[in-house]
Design a protein that fits this description.
This protein has 1250 residues and is an all-alpha fold. It folds into 3 domains: 193 residues; 496 residues; 192 residues. It contains 14 helices and no strands. Keywords: Coiled coil.
Length: 1250
């Protein structure tokens, strides 16, 4: 709707703009009318056409305005009809969209018409500007009148349209207000729906939290049932143990009499021996002092004896455990030793293989060194050859310089000869002018012809030599290019060699660093081994000292009590020895594993170094191979260059020989010229004939060249003679030879420079090869050092391993010897005990006095039986408690079924509540429809009042009142129904909450009962343990009393009764076993009690966590309820602001709901407070239990420390044990302080809250 309104407003703006354009065009037409005054009458039809166009334009505009007005009226009527019926908003929107589309189409047509008219106006303007003729004043007047009329009509239409538009705007504003009201109502309903949905979600969350609580309760009940079952099992086990103990007591009764007799006899004999020994002593004063000191120490010793007896039991159990552990440890040590031997063999084999591989690598390195030396020798030989060739080249260069000097001299001689020949020719020409001068020429012709023939042959040879020199020049060029290419390749290879050299240097540095690290690790391992060996030696020395002290004490104390103490000390020391042996074994195993790991690491590092060295060797071999290939290639190139130099030298020799021939010819010519000069004084005929014969004036001469002595270009003007051509050719060829000789010299110089550069490169390569050799030698030395280090490390490791094995074997031997010694001592003591038993057999006749004591012991045993009967009664009570627990389980199951039934009822109630919410939504929808109908009825009533104000005023009032009353009654009925349903839901919720509270109270009661029963069980267990400990203490006291009586009796030692003491020994062993079993049972019961305490603490902690989770969930629920209350308050405010005319019934309903929510909030707050108090009380109880446990453990630790300080010998092991106990005591004290601090903090928090 808003979009369509916006489009309508845009269309109105566009219409206004078109009106403005029409006004502008009307003003333009008025300007055109004034301009057309000066136009001629010849253009009347043009003016008539303009008038017709203007009329059409105005008519179209008027028609369009009428259409727009009609369309606006239609829209206003549609809007009015829509306002009457709010249910037909969708149809109104569709109609508005159609109207908007029609307006847009018409607006587009209008724009098109305007564009066409503008074009026509432009065309008319052009025609007017071209024609410049005056129009008729009458037509202009008519046009003016029509314009005035059109303007008046247009103004009236615009006024009407404006009035209609104002009406439409008013109606539109009304419709907008109505739509706003409708949207507000819809928003309120949507808010209400959201609130209802939020409440549903909250209720679902509450239900889920309740289900979670039920599940937690069920889990707790299952845990408690499991605990009860475990208690039943423990009680059954305890009954079985009680029966077994009864049987053992019966057996003890049978053996007690006999043992008491034997013990009394032995103690009597021992006392007699002691008395005799004391009688032998000199002074009785010392005895009295000793007795006084013993009496002073007796009180402490009694307590110590009790503690020692308990300690002996524990030590016996520990001794048995340690013996089994020692056996297993010995077996494991044997297996480990076998494995270590196997590993050592494997490692020795690996070392052998590695040493063989290293030897192979050393052989390969030696072979490579030999090959490198061979290559160096070859390079030295090639260098010598190159130097020899360089010397040859220098010689050739000097020879070339000499030849060039000779050629220059020959040229100078040729120029001199040419000058002489020119002078002779002039003379001959002068003589030819004279008659009768032909004879001498004929006479001279034969030798001159021979000379021409010889000279022609020499020129051909010279030409051939020149061609050959050219070919050699081209070959020298190709050689130069090849040498340049080879130089570039050598430069590239040199760069590669430098890169490889740098990489090798970096690798060497890395290897040096690794070697340093390995050396540091080996030193650290050596230090550790030394420390461990020193510690082992110290421990062995301490053990030896202990043994000496024990032997000294054993020699000093021959009494029975002293023997028992010695036995206890020996057992303690044996255990300490075994512990130290185990520690030493563990240390040895750790050291062996550490050495193995270090050995493996060193092996890996050596393998890596070997691989790197192999790679370096391969790289060096490749570089050496490349250097050898380059040296061979250079040798080949040097050979080719030497061969080419030889060819050039040959060619130069040939050219030199040719030059020598030319010089000879020149000399011959000079001789001939000298002869001619000599004969110049003869008659002219002979001279002319000789000159004619010399230069070949006859036409039959076969040679047309000039002599070698002629200069270049000397006699070109003399065309009639044949000698001019030959001389010019000779001069040219000599010039060419000179040039080629200079080019060859330049080539030779370039070749020499190239050879010098190649020599420099070869020298550089030789230097690099020498450096590489030095580096290879250094690496070889390093490899040798590493091999030596490796061999030394291997030898050291082997030595250390052998030393460790020897030490371990020595320690085992020593321990075996110690065990043998202890066995021997035990055998001696057993023999002594047997002797005493023989003496006791002889003194059985003195045992009649002990019957009274035996009777007392039987009475005590009877008392123990009565106590066992009381324990049986306690067991019966436990069974009764188990029956009660079963009853409680059945009750809990019944309550669980009730809880399930209540959960089902809750689900049903939730469904009903959802259905009621749906009904509420339907009712809200109906209310909204009724409100819309009421608004429609009000609008209709207003319209009817406007139409029929006079006739039907009373009737409409009655109808309105009736409709209002009917609507209000329906609203009230719906509101009352909703209130009743809400009240029913609230009552059901209260009922369910009450049931939940009852269930929770019952669960608390069951928990309290179970806790009470657990306390009872614990108290019964504690009582049983105390009774058993009392019985054991009483039995021990009886035994001590019997021993004291036997000591008082005394007896004499009689030989010959060695075979009768075996049953006594068997009985003593059986009694010891029984004592050990009872101590085991006591320790097991103590462990079970401790485990039970720990389990109880864990269970209490779990309960605390659960209570904390429940409290957190309840806090969440409270937060949600608070949010719901705030939302409801906000809704109430909105309802008060938006619906001021709403009924007071709804407000009361909301107030009641608000009050009910407040009550629930207060109840849950109380519940949370109670839960918090419970949690605090439970946490306080847990802290108290923990503090009690810590105090008990502290007392035990302090007692142990006191006993150790009094009884234990002053050694390192005992000091360490004392330090451990003290550290544990300090830790316990810190824990106790922390717990006490936390408890105080909790108490302060409680006080601050209160």
């Amino acid at each position: 709707m808003t979009h369509l309104r916006f489009q309508n407003s845009e269309l109105e703006i566009r219409l206004k703009a078109t009106q403005r354009e029409l006004e502008a065009k009307s003003t333009r037409l008025s300007i055109l009318e004034t301009a057309q005054v000066s136009v001629s009458r010849a253009q009347k039809p043009i003016g008539g056409g303009l008038g017709l166009i203007f009329r059409e334009f105005v008519g179209t505009n008027a028609a369009l305005g009428i259409c727009i007005a009609l369309h606006s009226l239609k829209i206003s009527r549609r809007i009015e009809s829509g306002a009457r019926s709010p249910t037909g908003l969708s149809s109104e929107v569709a109609q508005l969209r159609k109207a908007n589309q029609e307006l847009s189409v018409k607006f587009a047509q209008l724009q098109m018409d305007l564009d066409d008219r503008e074009r026509q106006m432009r065309a008319m303007d052009r025609l007017q500007s071209t024609s410049r003729s005056a129009t008729d004043f009458s037509e202009l007047a008519v046009l003016r009148r029509e314009l005035v009329t059109v303007k008046a009509e247009k103004e009236t239409e615009i006024m009407n349209l404006n009035a209609q538009l104002e009406k439409i705007k008013l109606e539109r504003n009304e419709t907008n207000d109505k739509l706003k009201e409708v949207t507000n109502t819809l928003a309120e309903k949507s808010n209400l729906l959201r609130l209802t949905e939020a409440e549903k979600d909250k209720e679902l969350m509450d239900r889920e939290s309740l289900q979670k609580k039920y599940e937690v309760v069920l889990t707790q009940l299952s845990d408690k049932t499991e605990k009860v079952q475990s208690l039943e099992l423990e009680s059954s086990k305890q009954t079985e143990e009680m029966r077994r103990q009864k049987a053992e007591l019966d057996d003890m009764r049978h053996h007690a009499t006999y043992l008491q007799n034997t013990i009394q006899e032995r103690e009597n004999r021992i006392e007699a021996v002691e008395k005799e020994s004391f009688k032998i002593r000199d002074e009785l004063v010392n005895v009295k002092k000793h007795l006084s000191s013993l009496e002073a120490e007796a009180k402490g010793l009694r307590e110590e004896l009790a503690y020692r007896e308990e300690r002996l039991r524990q030590l016996q159990t520990q001794h048995s455990d340690e013996l089994s552990r020692l056996r297993t440890a010995n077996q494991e040590q044997a297996t480990r030793n076998s494995h270590l031997e196997m590993k050592l063999d494997e490692k020795e084999h690996e070392l052998k293989t590695q040493s063989s591989e290293l030897r192979c690598q050393a052989d390969e390195i030696a072979r490579l060194q030999a090959s490198i030396e061979e290559y160096t020798n070859r390079l030295t030989i090639s260098q010598k050859r190159v130097e020899e060739r360089e010397l040859r080249l220098k010689k050739l260069e000097s020879e070339n310089h000499d030849l060039l000097d000779e050629i220059h001299g020959l040229r100078k001689g040729n120029t001199d000869l040419e000058s002489q020949v020119d002078s002779l020719r002039q003379r001959l020409l002068d003589r030819q002018d004279r008659p009768g001068s032909v004879g001498p020429a004929a006479a001279m012709s034969p030798p001159i012809r021979t000379h021409h023939s010889v000279y022609g042959a020499s020129t051909t040879a010279v030409n051939q030599e020149l061609d050959r020199v050219r070919k050699q020049y081209q070959e020298a060029k190709t050689l130069q290019e090849q040498t340049q290419k080879s130089l570039e390749e050598t430069q590239i290879q040199y760069d590669q060699m430098t890169v490889q050299r740098n990489t090798l240097r970096t690798q060497l540095e890395q290897e040096i660093a690794k070697r340093a690290q390995l050396e540091e690790k080996l030193r650290a391992n050596d230090d550790q081994w030394k420390l461990r060996v020193s510690q082992a030696i110290m421990c062995l020395n301490k053990e030896i000292e202990r043994m000496h002290t024990s032997s000294a004490l054993r020699d000093r104390l021959p009494d029975s009590t002293s023997q028992q103490l010695l036995l206890a000390d020996l057992q303690v020391r044996l255990r300490q020895v075994t512990e130290e042996r185990d520690q030493a074994k563990d240390q040895l195993a750790a050291a062996v594993s550490h050495t193995e790991s270090t050995y493996l690491e060193t092996q890996q590092q050596l393998l890596l170094e070997k691989q790197t060295l192999q790679q370096q060797v391969t790289n060096l071999t490749q570089t050496a191979h490349n250097a050898t290939s380059e040296a061979d290639r250079y040798q080949r190139e040097a050979r080719q260059a030497s061969s080419r130099i030889q060819q050039l030298s040959r060619q130069l020799q040939e050219t030199q020989s040719n030059c020598d021939a030319i010089a000879r010819q020149r000399d011959s010519l000079r001789d001939q010229l000298d002869q001619l000069r000599r004969t110049s004084g003869r008659p002219g005929s002979s001279a002319l004939s000789s000159v004619a014969n010399l230069f070949g004036t006859g036409g039959g001469s076969s040679y047309g060249g000039r002599p070698a002595s002629a200069g270049p270009g000397s006699y070109e003007n003399l065309g009639g003679y044949g000698t001019t051509g030959s001389t010019s050719q000779l001069s040219r060829e000599l010039d060419r030879l000179h040039r080629e000789h200079e080019a060859t010299q330049q080539q030779l110089r370039s070749a020499q420079e190239a050879e010098e550069s190649s020599r420099n490169e070869i020298d550089r390569l030789n230097k690099e090869l020498q450096q590489m050799k030095q580096e290879v030698e250094q690496q070889k030395t390093k490899l040798n050092e590493l091999e030596q280090q490796k061999h030394s490390l291997e030898s050291e490791m082997a030595k250390r391993q052998t030393e460790d094995i020897e030490k371990s074997q020595q320690q085992q031997k020593e321990l075996r010897e110690k065990l043998q010694w202890t066995e021997q001592q035990l055998n001696e003591k057993s023999n002594h005990v047997e002797n005493l038993s023989h003496q006791l057999n002889n003194t059985r006749q003195y045992c009649s006095e002990l019957e009274h004591n035996v009777n007392e012991i039987t009475q005590r045993l009877n008392s123990a039986e009565s106590r066992s009967q009381s324990q049986m009664n306690d067991l019966q009570q436990l069974q009764q408690l188990q029956m009660e627990c079963n009853m409680l389980r059945n009750q809990i199951q019944m309550k669980d079924s009730e809880i399930q039934r209540y959960t089902i009822q809750l689900d049903q109630l939730n469904r009903e509540y959802q259905n009621q919410q749906r009904q509420m939504e339907q009712m809200t929808i109906e209310l909204s429809t009724t409100q819309a109908n009421l608004t429609q009825i009000k609008q209709e009533a207003q319209q009817l009042q406007q139409q029929q104000q006079t006739a039907s005023a009373g009737e409409m009032g009655m109808r309105r009142l009736s409709t209002d009353s009917m609507g209000r009654e329906t609203d009230r009925e719906t509101i009352h129904l909703l209130q009743a349903e809400i009240k029913e839901a609230a009552t059901t919720r209260q009922h369910l909450e009450q049931q939940l509270d009852q269930l929770q109270n019952e669960l608390r009661l069951t928990r309290a009962q179970l806790e009470e029963k657990a306390h009872l069980l614990e108290s019964l267990e504690d009582n049983q343990l105390k009774q058993q400990s009392e019985t054991v203490a009483s039995l021990q006291r009886d035994l001590q009393a019997a021993r004291a009586q036997i000591e008082e009796l005394g007896g004499s030692v009689e030989p010959g009764t060695n075979g009768k003491a075996s049953p006594l020994k068997i009985e003593i062993d059986s009694l010891k076993r029984e004592l050990i079993k009872r101590e085991d049972t006591i320790t097991r019961l103590e462990r079970e009690c401790q485990e039970k305490h720990v389990r109880r603490i864990e269970a209490m902690q779990a309960q605390l966590r659960r209570f904390e989770d429940e409290a957190a969930n309840l806090n969440k629920v409270l937060d949600e309820q608070r949010a719901g209350l705030e939302e409801r308050d906000r809704l109430i405010r909105q309802l008060r602001s938006n619906q001021g005319q709403a009924s007071s019934v709804e407000l009361e309903k909301l107030r009641t709901e608000h009050a009910h929510c407040k009550e629930q909030f207060e109840q849950q707050a109380k519940r949370i407070n109670t839960l918090a108090e419970q949690i605090e009380s439970q946490s306080d109880e847990i802290l108290a239990i923990k503090l009690e446990a810590l105090t008990a453990s502290l007392c035990e630790k302090e007692a142990n420390i006191a006993l150790m300080e009094l009884t234990a010998p002053k050694n390192a092991a005992s000091n360490q044990a004392l330090e451990k106990l003290r550290t544990e005591r300090d830790q316990l004290q810190t824990q106790q302080r922390q717990l006490s601090n936390t408890r105080a903090m909790l108490a302060e928090e409680r006080k601050s809250r209160k």
